[in-house]
């Protein structure tokens, strides 16, 4: 718990995707600089029992990272029928937030013109709050659409590295999410898992991971 500067309070807004961890860590650095409280918020229109494994994995990973960085609370708004902007505004006022960290929206320029930018709405609604907009890296943008939907998988330690499997046994070394490359008959892709409160991504080539220390940059 950070209470050094009660004049400042950080709210990190995250949505499902590879940019979430980056946003939380950015918020953590700002909170550490001001020695002030930080909250993490995610909003979802679906009930929790309708979440798929990929979404649940992101939430679990983000909670661990938020705890590691000393967040006051990880707030999940399930089954939310209000707009995302409305929820962000309400939480901002409830927690006396002074700075918001959020990712660059995925909307096209045309959608922003016709439907309005979330950032612009927040600026109008929360004139007393500073906004930090974190852009998605080119590497992460390039991955969109290149992999199939993530599924739960495990790494079993074998001679020469690790083998990908989809049935849980007591011999499994790591549990995570496997993203298979589009257009391949083999299990080639990316395996993402938590290790020591850090999200790690490793390449899978024909069901095998050579070394979990050889991470994707």
Automatic annotation (TrEMBL):
Keywords: Kinase, Transferase. GO terms for molecular function: phosphorelay sensor kinase activity. The keyword Membrane does not apply. GO terms for cellular component: plasma membrane. The keyword Kinase applies. Pfam families: Usp. InterPro entries: Histidine_kinase_KdpD, Rossmann-like_a/b/a_fold, UspA. Residues 10-125 form the UspA domain. This is Histidine kinase. It comes from Paenibacillus albiflavus.
């Amino acid at each position: 718990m950070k209470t050094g500067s009660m004049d400042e309070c950080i709210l990190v807004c995250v949505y499902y995707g590879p940019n979430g961890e980056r946003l939380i860590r950015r918020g953590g650095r700002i909170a550490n600089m001001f020695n002030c409280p930080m909250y993490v918020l995610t909003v979802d229109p679906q009930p929790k029992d309708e979440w798929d494994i990929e979404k649940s994995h992101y939430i679990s990973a983000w909670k661990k990272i938020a705890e590691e960085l000393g967040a006051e609370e990880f707030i999940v708004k399930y089954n939310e029928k209000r707009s995302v902007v409305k929820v962000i505004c309400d939480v901002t006022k409830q927690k006396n937030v002074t700075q918001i960290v959020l990712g660059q929206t995925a909307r096209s320029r045309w959608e922003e013109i016709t439907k309005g930018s979330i950032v612009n709405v927040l600026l109008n609604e929360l004139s007393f709050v500073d906004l930090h907009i974190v852009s998605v890296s080119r590497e992460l943008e390039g991955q969109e659409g290149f992999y199939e939907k993530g599924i739960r998988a495990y790494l079993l330690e074998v001679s020469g590295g690790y083998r990908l499997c989809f049935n849980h046994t007591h011999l499994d070394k790591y549990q995570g999410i496997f993203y298979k490359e589009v257009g391949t008959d083999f299990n080639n892709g990316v395996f993402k898992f938590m290790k020591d409160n850090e999200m790690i991504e490793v390449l899978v080539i024909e069901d095998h991971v050579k070394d979990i220390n050889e991470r994707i940059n």
